[in-house]
Amino acid sequence: MTFQSLDSSPVASVEVPLGAAILRRGAGAAQSVLRRYGLVAGFLAVWQIGSTFGWINPTVFPPLDKILAATWEGIAGGKLLDDIAISLQRSGLAFAAAVGLGIPLGLFMGQIRAVEEALDPLLQFFRQTSALALYPVFILLLGLGEASKVFVIFWATLFPILLATIGGVKEVDRKLIEMATTFGASRATIFRRVVLPASVPSIFVGLRLSATTALLLLIAAEMIGANKGLGFQVMNAQYNFQIPQMFAAILLLAVLGLSANAVLVTLQRRLCRWADLNQ
User: 2, 42, 65, 190 — which has fewest CB within 10 A?
Assistant: First the structure.
């Protein structure tokens, strides 16, 4: 009894038209955007419609078009540009000082266990003390000028960077250090080629937390004894019951925070291409 072999000729591949492929990719991209930003868009739409039709109090929550109009008017007229510049100057100086002190000190403390154990209780004590609670002390020491405002932001942003750097150094795989030592690498080479690269992801976590903290403390610092800045504009507009202008300043603060985070994330991805970044 013989079996006849079935025809196993290859099936001709079906070519997808170019237009259909473009539509499919566009639909996939739209679906991805909708999953990521759909809830935000829905929230903004409910705000706009509810405020316009009086479902929510338009005095407290004005429509988004009025807030955007107030934002554009403030920027185009130059009224808010000075406030943005002075706020960026205050937070930028404090953040740069925190980076300049926190990263080197964290790298040093992370490698020398005795120093880290001696200073850790003091660091934890200061970290748990609210910077806003210490702000009156800074005002007494430095006055109501720029120095106290910059210093309170610096104080709050220092500890996330410092502790994240220390944690990053302590979490470096000791087998890598032992291997480098076995191959005759010097301590400077081990630090440059092993410890520092492995610590960079943790350092960036601290940088992103500090950038957010800098903007939060900026608002509080500018609400006391200031006559310029976005935080001052929030309070000034609230006192004068200029609610769209108040939300305009809040919107600009949110945009600055998102921009700073995006810059740090981009820089982290460039410097840590070898790491698995779960952004």
Answer: 2
Which SS3 state, helix, strand or coil, does residue 14 take?
A: coil
Phi then psi for residue 225, to 5 deg, are 65, 30
Phi, psi of 174 (to 5 degrees): -65, -25
Q: What angle is formed at CA 84 by the lines to CA 67 and CA 241, rounded to 5 degrees?
A: 40
Rounded to two decimals, the pTM is 0.78
CA distance 198 to 196: 5
- Report whether 177 contacts 194 (CB < 8 A): yes
Which parts of the chain are beta strand (E)?
A: none
Contacts of 151 (CB under 8 A, 6+ apart): 94, 138, 142
At 128-180, the pLDDT tens digits run 888 888 888 888 888 878 888 899 999 999 999 999 999 888 888 778 777 87
